[in-house]
Amino acid sequence: MAIIRKKMISIITGASVLILLLVITTYFMAKIFPDDAINPVTEQSESHSSGIMTAGAAGEASARDYYVSPQGKDVNPGTMNAPLASIQKAIELVKPGGSVMLLEGVYHQTVSINKSGSSDQGYISLRSAKGHTAVMDGKGVQPVENGVIHIDNASYVRVEGLEIRHYDTSSAVVTPIGIHVSGSGRNIEIIGNRVHDMGTHAGRKAGGGNAHGIAVYGNSADPLKQIAIIENELYNLKLGASEAMVINGNVDGFRVTKNLVHHNNNIGVDIIGFEGTGPNPAQDQARNGVIQENQVYNNSSYGNPAYGNDYSAAGIYVDGGKDIKIIDNDIHDNDFGIELASEHAGGSTSNVEVSLNRIYNNSAAGITLGGYDEDRGRTENCIIKENEFTENNTKHLGYGEINLAFDTRNNEMENNSIQANEDGLMITNEFIQNEGNIVDFNHYSSKNQSLWIWKGEEYDDFSTYRTQTGNDLHSKLNLEI
């Protein structure tokens, strides 16, 4: 019994020593390796508030995140407690499913992303850390042609929650861009960013220069696909001859939703084709997109050195794009509300649906279709329906609520509510070449007079207008005298 008792005591003593050693080892491991290095926090969720489902949720849950701070050092491991200084270095280190988290502060840097996440492992993300606001500021930074954030030939990349400002130039040969996507790829998401107070200051003699807030250029033989631009704000941008937001060239599939685009000195949102951006002319046309639930307002080219005193900027412009839906947007106090045209002879804007939008108080037409002169392309097979056009032509420039410019073919304008201002201009169409356009089932109202111009002929009597043109046979007119 004594021998057994001694063995039991030895076993218990040995076990106690082992437990003590394990506790001591765990304590010192925690001191040497902080929690955020052993178990990195991944802030990605399986779904985003915008409704985009995150790819590869399992991969994102286990991927390493890297933290960056203006006070960081690039010799650090990139944890929250020991962040890096360089955003570019963090991008080079991060793997699919991981994020580069920018901590609070101002970053005087630019960054290029030319690596991809994947559908099974997840997105590569560049974002503000949760509860932090990261500002990328261009003061003291040499402007670069590729943009502040440049995503090139990459897929499954997300840029989220950043503020970008003060990237300016006076050179006409440099184009400042806040977020720039180029090449080919798919599943690029630009979500919840603010791009403001930046652009070109090139003078009129230099052509006014160019700048963009967000630019997507499909300049590869393979398209950019599944582009999402959601809940961003673009404002106070000096754009020269360019646009606050542009999707140009070989881009097949995009969604522009819930953005605020306002107080810029040229076009708000532009979808472009036939500019030579894509190497194959047959695919050099942004297509298959939705522009929905955006607020686009106070965008005007008046006073812009590239335009002088012209009112030329549309809130939303489709210039050579096709197969696009423009739905449920608020568009007001721009030069034009919406423009569907092609600036390039031989090209066309086609199969665009414009519906359920509220278009009001724009300086010229609520919507204009067709080329602005006879050297442009055409607008065809577009549907303008169930919109509210209210007191546009505020600068009394001679435009109707709906304007048909040169070479419009087989478009339908039906079931719209059209309320003219005191000028009474409902529809203007000066070109006899326009053909096959259908106008009917609209509801017109005006304060004191109503005018229609159709193929150069002016009508101030609704009955005569309908009889002579065959338009609006089922439409109604209310005069508020």
TrEMBL record:
Coiled coil: none
Gene Ontology cellular-component annotations: extracellular region
GO molecular function, one term: carbon-oxygen lyase activity, acting on polysaccharides
Principal cellular location given in the protein's record: secreted
Subcellular location: Secreted
Keyword list, A-Z: Secreted, Signal
Keyword Secreted: yes
Domain DUF1565: 71-110
InterPro entries membership: DUF1565, PbH1, Pectin_lyas_fold, Pectin_lyase_fold/virulence, Polysaccharide_Lyase_9
Gene3D superfamilies, per database record: Single-stranded right-handed beta-helix, Pectin lyase-like
Name used for this protein in its record: DUF1565 domain-containing protein
